[in-house]
Amino acid sequence: MKKKSVSAGLCGALCLSLLAGCAESPKKDVVTSKNDGVFQQNITVQATAPLDERLTYQDTFTSTDGTVTYTLDLDQELSSQPLPVVEVVPHYLTGEDVERVARAIFGDAEFYEKMPQTDPKFSKQQLQAYISWMSGLATQDALARLYQREGNGHTDFSEEVDLIKWYIQYFTTQLETAPEENPQKPCDWTFRGDKAYQRDAHGNDVISATVKLGDIEYNIYALCRDKKDYKLSEVSVGLSSGLGLFGETDYLRAKLCRTPEPTEEQVTAAREKAQALLDRMELGTWGIRDVHVEKQDFVDAPEYTIEVLTTPVFGGVPALDGQLIYLTGSDANASSYKISCASFRFSANGDLISFDLESPVDVKSVVNEGVATLPLEELMDRVKNYFSLTGLEETKQYGVMNSWYPEPMTCQVTISELEYGLARMNVPNQEGVFYYSPAIVVYGHPDFYSQATGEHLENFFETGQNERYDLVWINAVDGSIL
Questions:
Q1: Nearest alpha carbon to residue 349 among 227, 214, 186, 177
Q2: Cα separation, 282 vs 133, whole angstroms
Q3: What is the mean pLDDT of residues 396-405?
Q4: What is the pTM of this model?
């Protein structure tokens, strides 16, 4: 099949018209998500061919207020089968769901209700275990090995040492009257008000349990909320007793993750393990979007984790990741239910470091198995329209940079990649009902400069050069901004 090519020339005339005719105020005329009926009409149209185009696009222009220079530098192939429009609703976790998640990960291990934060009780064996690992951290040198990073001059851990010694004394005193048997109750997988477990209650229903694999303790925490203000449905697993003991999670992570760099075989094994665990959890179909190795540099030794990111699958296609949904607001895309995603962190040796699953959904209906989308040329026009009307204060990372550099600044944004896939949007006039539908997401990187001197201003949150940010999401069916 001959690929279509989309070049800058196709959109140049429209862009010049936009820049000449728009008011000074950025974003005044941006086409944002709205309930105008166009999308509802368009989703009934069937696609006649798959997406199979080469996008070659180079251009430079400024925002209408002159505060941002945009450079589009795109050269990539976009190909996809026709994507569906799927209607979904929130899946609120049940106790059976949470138990199934726990047993998918830990098998037939014994699970116990987490102790409340106020006046917890422990067995002698538990107290001895806490005293043992804390005693190994109760010196300046031990904490420096655990926490000191390359280039970080922090060397005084005297306050932290005093805190650990206080915990050791507290647990030692409790040893005198502690029972031999574990006083924790077996977990019955029942949701309870969060005040049963924690001091700061928020009116959510939770399940909080602990489990041990060898000498490594994990906390399982599930959260549900179905109220008018916002909705929650999520489950997480992490290294810790859940008691908030200083140093516990860091100590356990260092014990498991200060290894040689993961091999390609270990990364593949982590990917396969994550997919197998999700399949056993039976909370919908999930697909892997990204697998990569994270490294944290400590003076003692580097710490490696294998990160696996997954999203729900519809029509055999994993949804796009990273979409931001505002839980409050009046915009047509504001929602009370967070975006669905699940992630794992493993050590190089395959130990689970953490697991998080947020906002599972149930498929209500398949509206269109392969919907028609706007031509790529028209979507690129919408991209340029959006950026031409987006000034400095609306640019990604401006808020962070302005908090560090109060001086006047300018911005240069390089737009380097476009991705096509499924994104979530609200079903008009139906609370808590959503579509997954085709969209494009535009990626790039903003660089900020002093207006007075032209000096490049460093973003201290960035860990590498030219980190990629999602700059705008566009509905590929009607061209509106998500």
A1: 214
A2: 36
A3: 92
A4: 0.86
